[in-house]
Amino acid sequence: MEHIPTILFLLSTLLFAISVEAPPSPLFPDEALPTKSGYLPVKPAPGSSMFYTFYEAQKPTFPLSDTPLLVWLQGGPGCSSMIGNFYELGPWRVVSHATELERNPGAWNRLFGLIFLDNPIGVGFSIAASKEDIPINQRQVAEHLYAALVVFLEQNSGFEHRPVYFTGESYAGKYVPAIGYYILKEKPNGKVNLKGLAIGNGLTDPVTQVQTHAVNVYYSGLVNAKQRVELEKAQEIALALVKSQKWREAGDARNELLTLLSNMTGLATLYNTARSIPYRSDLVVDLLNQREARRVLGVSETMSFDECTDEVEDALHEDVMKSVKFMVDYAVERTKVLLYQGMLDLRDGVVSTEEWMKTMNWSGLGMFLTAERRVWMDGDGVIAGYVQRWGNLCHVAVSGAGHFVPTDQAVNSRDMIEGWVLGKGLFGVDDVKQPISSKLYHSI
Length: 444
Ligand SMILES: *[C@@H]1O[C@H](CO)[C@@H](O)[C@H](O)[C@H]1NC(C)=O
Ligand SMILES: *[C@@H]1O[C@H](CO)[C@@H](O)[C@H](O)[C@H]1NC(C)=O
Prior knowledge:
This protein is of the alpha/beta class. The chain contains 17 helices and twelve strands. It has helices at residues 3-21, 81-89, 138-155, 172-186, 206-209, 213-219, 225-243, 247-265, 282-288, 291-297, 310-315, 325-332, 350-357, 365-370, 405-408, 410-422, 436-443; strands at residues 36-41, 49-55, 69-73, 92-93, 102-103, 113-117, 164-169, 194-200, 336-342, 373-377, 383-390, 393-398. β10 and β11 (383-390) form a beta hairpin. The longest helix is centred in the first third of the chain and has 19 residues, at 3-21. The site of one 2-acetamido-2-deoxy-beta-D-glucopyranose has 4 residues, from α8.
């Protein structure tokens, strides 16, 4: 009789082992599921809709009805915000394997709600009813974004007064000012409680930015004097085409310049001089082309996912070299603006941004330019970057990061966005040495 408990023990161990191993761990653990995801119709494009994923704040410090909402927009033009979601700043990311989501220690939805929009229509899982509905300029982009966001706010009770911050990267350096300008100018009493605009490594004023490549890489030691001249020639070609308003050719000329730069430097990617391989956004493509991913996100199983969509890129190609700096000028007089760049980016980096910031038409510019640039230390006493702020404008150079700042510096990027939204720490300090000349000027 004594062997019976032993058999039972063995049996139960066996069953336990089976029950642990049998169901393979799902691709999306429950915690990794968005709070909501689906489609938001856009106007005026019947039948078209924007795909979104929304993650509510994990540890909100305000009642939800007052908790800020961050809207994230990817660049391209034509790339999906699911790259931002699953490779950069979302709560769960694919870091090394397409089949394994890992918790992001620097998720941007710790204190704030976070919504990723596949913008413009036709991108990622978004749907464009026809090719003609895909935006060809920033005005159309803004109209669609506004329509989609209003539906989202209306669908969720208690959301109507939540403070909204538009954020984004790269070509979203166009979209973020465009939606900000549209709301501030045309819908100031509308349904979006706009509180700020944030752009990471943005393309905003291409004419100024395209002229900074040669000097930037020359003084970084990446090219020699002869190559610098060659790059300058390529820049001038792009510039001349802009002046004669040959927008498509000007966009091509910029691509040519970047290819030349890539050839000369031999870098794995212009997005980050320190990387030995390109960023692994391809992992997101593998993740989202798995049937289970589409099922849990509420996407038709017949849809395939592309990181960037050629049709949308092509529709906006003539827009690439057009500046939206005047929209930032307009916005910064009325709401707060954050411009941050990873310092290792050779496409849309710090120099490229500072160059156009200096030319802003903004009443606070003089004060901003004389404001102290402060050293930003992380929690371990390591340099996280440099912060300069005056009035509504905040500029951050992020150390140890390239084009995809949240991928490279997850926790620091979250500290930055939280500090900026809440107006805390270095990101909330107005620190400026009163210029002596301006004091004299006022006393005369
Ligand atoms: C860059 O290198 C590739 C491969 O060698 C070459 O085909 C291409 O013409 C080069 N482009 C430029 C702009 O230098
Ligand atoms: C600067 O902005 C003001 C006010 O918006 C405008 O009247 C003026 O024309 C602008 N100046 C330039 C050089 O763009």
